[in-house]
Structure formats: C-alpha cells, structure tokens
Amino acid sequence: MKVLIVGSGGREHAIAASVSKSSRVDKIYCAPGNAGIGQLAECVPIGAMEFEKLVAFAKEKEIDFTIIGMDDPLVGGVVDAFEAEGLRVFGPRKNAAILEGSKAFSKDLMKKYHIPTAAYETFDDPTAAAEYVKTAKLPIVLKADGLALGKGVLICNTLDEALAGVKEIMEDKKFGAAGNHMVVEEFMTGREVSVLSFVDGKTIKIMSSAQDHKRAKDGDQGLNTGGMGTFSPSPFYTKEVDEFCKKYIYQATVDAMAAEGRPFTGVIFFGLMLTSEGPKVLEYNARFGDPEAQVVLPRMKNDVLDVMEACVNGTLDQIDLQFEDNAAVCVVLASDGYPVSYEKGFEIGGLDRFLKEDGYYCFHAGTALNGEGKIVTNGGRVLGVTAKGADLKEARANAYAATEWVTFQNKYMRHDIGKAIDEA
Ligand code: AMP
Ligand code: GLY
Predict the structure, then answer these.
(1) Is any ligand 1 atom within 6 A of the Cβ of residue 274?
(2) Which residue, 9, 10, 198, 321, is most buried by CB atoms nearer than 10 A?
(3) Same domain (yes/no): 275, 242
(4) C-alpha distances in angstroms, 326 versus 91, 194, 230, 322, 385?
(5) Mean pLDDT, to the nearest integer, of 6-18?
(6) Which residue, of 286, 318, 350, is where some domain finishes?
(7) How far is the CA of 175 from the centre of ligand 1 (A)?
C-alpha cells in the first residue's frame, strides 16, 4: 500500500512511525513533513492547505490511503476534495470537522443532545457580550469561535480582564475571523484528561487516555503553548470516569453528529475536565492531539492502517482495539523563548541513539535539513522525546534520561512533565 500523510509536526511523525510498522505498507509520503519524518517517508514540498496539489499528487502516485493529521485542512474540507476524486482518505469531512472548527457549533450540539459541558452563551455582537460578562460570575472563560492555533481561549479573573478580552477577540480581532463569534463559558475546575477515539460514523472505539501540559513553564506557569509534554495513561481516568463518559459523552457525540446529518469519520479528541459534578467536555478536536499522539500511538498494539481503514469502511465494530499495559511520557524540547520569539537553525546532536534503543522515540516537530544535510532546529517546539516504561514513573524517568542525549543551542524543556503522577 502507498500511504500519504498530510502535516509536518510531531503528531504526523508519530503517525508515520506507526504506519511504518504496518505489514501492508510499501511506501510512505508526507506533505510537507519534516527532517525526522524524512527518515521514514519521502517528504514532498506541498503545503497542507494546497488541496488541489495534494489531490493531484495522490492521483499521480496512485496513493491508496491518505491520512490527514492537522486541523486546518480538515476544517477547510480537504477530505471532501479527496473524496470528490474517489480517493480514500482518513479524517472527517468538512461538515463534521466543524466539531473542532466552531466552538459555538460544538457547544450548541452538546446542549441539544444533553452532553455534559460548561454552561455558556454565544455572541456575535461585542456590546451584547460586554453587557453579559458584567452580570456573569468570575472567573469567566472567553473563547473565539473558530480555529486559533489553540490560543483563542481567555480565562478572565476580573471584570476588567473580561471586558478587555471581549474587545481583543471581537473588536481587535486578535485571533482573526475566529473572533467573529464568541462563546462565553462558565469556569470549571478539575483535572484535565485527553481522550482520543477512532470513529467510523456510527461506532466509536476509545484509545488509552493521556494528559497534556499546555503552559510553557514549570508549575503550569507562563503562556499557553501547543503542548510541552504528555503522559499516557492518565491515572485520573478511572474506571468510573470511563463508564460515565461511555454512558453520557462518547457514543452520544457520535450519535448526535449522525443525527445532524454530519456523520463523523476519523479521530474525535475529547478534551475532558473531571469536575466535582463529574466529567464535562471542555472541547472537541477532530484529529489526534499533539503531543498526545506521541504517547498514545506507540502503545497501540493494532496495525494502525487496519483501524483507520475500518473507520473509512464503516467496519470499526469488527476491530478489537488494544493497548500495551505500560505507560509512555513525552517531554517536548523547545527553543528557548517559545511561544513568543526564538532563534532557529541550530544543529541538533544525539538523535542517532533513539534509533538503537527500544521503547525510545524522538518525534520531530520543528526541524529541517540545512544546506549541508544536517538536522537543525526550525520551530518553537523542536522535538518530542518519548519513552515507554512499565509504569508512569519509569516512563517519566526514561523520558527525562533521554532528553539528555539530545543537544542543541537554546534547548528548553519543562522539568515537571508527569509530576501529577505522584499525586495519583
Ligand atoms: P480549549 O481550547 O477549549 O480546550 O481551551 C484551552 C484550555 O483552556 C483548556 O485546556 C483548559 O485548560 C482551559 N479551559 C477552557 N475552557 C475552560 C473552562 N470552561 N473552565 C476552565 N478552564 C477552561
Ligand atoms: N494537545 C492539545 C491539542 O492537540 O489540541
């Protein structure tokens, strides 16, 4: 089988690594990919939003199966573009990717189908939004409706902050058109858990749970980032939580999408908050998490292509999804200064060791090959150093030991990824 993966981050590297283990794959392409993915796949210089070029490439190379890793192309309708040409592709169509693409849509869906989530109101007029926040309980959460690189959420502790937030999102358009509509939401407290799932339109199979660390600095200080590290499974995702979510959230979401005439095929990522009133949905994503994929996929026992094809074929009910009875931790190595400003182009050393050690992975996020063919830093998040262990503590020790193998100038990481494990 010839497989094309669309995307260029650590998530797509993790997908490529899983696909490369499949007995049925002959050749992997990745558009546009990165230096690490290039060790497993042939990278082609086509951007993830260049739908016509992607489709033409898939036809020319007779690609059997395409996997879309990123949110932007999914929300923009890349799956529809592939399907229109009779190409087989893994991911939700545009009318289903809206589950991630519009927070107002997803909140209205949850309300209509009684799926537990924070109370909210939606606004398209900044004056009405400002009047509302004046009466609302603090802290309050403001969310730009559309995709905003994970940054369109403001948690406001005072009325002044909330009013400034309404202005930033709806008037100054800090997050662009994503701020044409805004969701104002009740603030929830509790532990966060990421649950990824495979969906074929009607059946849903849950993957092992994970937890992300979104803030840049130790102790959850600093700015929100794309994710500074993850661990899987989450010790807080108990049997009771699982049973509650199976009863009220997972299948209910899949059935709601089908009932709305928007059957969902691909990965639904449930961002959950474990509140004192039970689990509630913080957000949906329409794709694997990054860096959740880096700790979940390496622990999956199934051939990932079997599972993804079953999603596209509508036969997911026949798949017995299985995960290893162990744990994994991913520590992101970033460029110092991320997510604000940072330098790029520094040579990276120590990567070869990951190819020799079982249970260790170095997923590339922001890397490139320089003119001399050397791997250099090329982004804020550079690498996701991942290790397995018999349990979470061992996996964490292994992952942090492996971060020492890697050298590059301005290397930055959090030192408390998985610290919550100690509180479990
Ligand atoms: P989202 O993109 O909706 O997942 O929001 C990003 C992050 O903001 C989440 O991972 C939470 O840490 C936080 N957040 C979002 N909504 C709420 C809420 N209603 N209450 C508390 N924290 C929230
Ligand atoms: N790690 C969070 C996300 O992928 O959205």
Answers:
(1) no
(2) 10
(3) yes
(4) 28, 17, 15, 12, 17
(5) 98
(6) 318
(7) 16
Q: Tell which atom from ligand 2 comes closest to the C-alpha of 285.
A: 5
* Tally of domains in the chain: 4
Whether residue 6 is predicted with pLDDT greater than 90 in this model: the reply is yes
Nearest CA to ligand 2 atom 2: 289
pLDDT in tens, 246-295: 999 999 999 999 999 999 999 999 999 999 999 999 999 999 999 999 99
Minimum-distance ligand to the CA of 153? Answer: 1
Rounded alpha-carbon distances, angstroms, from residue 411 to 353, 365, 377, 380, 383:
18, 14, 10, 10, 10
108 within some domain: no
Confirm whether 124 is domain-assigned: yes
Question: Are 285 and 241 contained in the same domain?
Answer: yes
Q: How far is the CA of 40 from the centre of ligand 2 (A)?
A: 24
CATH number at residue 253: 3.30.470.20
CATH for 88: 3.40.50.20
Output the CA torsion sign for 171, 172, 177, 181.
negative
Sequence-distant (≥ 6) Cβ neighbours of residue 228 within 8 angstroms: 213, 214, 215, 216, 331, 332, 334, 381, 413, 414, 417
188 lines ligand 1 (CB under 6 A): yes
List, for residues 313-324, the tens digit of each pLDDT value.
999 999 999 999
Q: Which domain holds residue 281?
A: 191-318
Same domain assignment for residues 347 and 379: yes
What's at 194, amino acid-wise? S
Is the shortest distance between the CB of 187 and ligand 1 below 6 Å?
yes
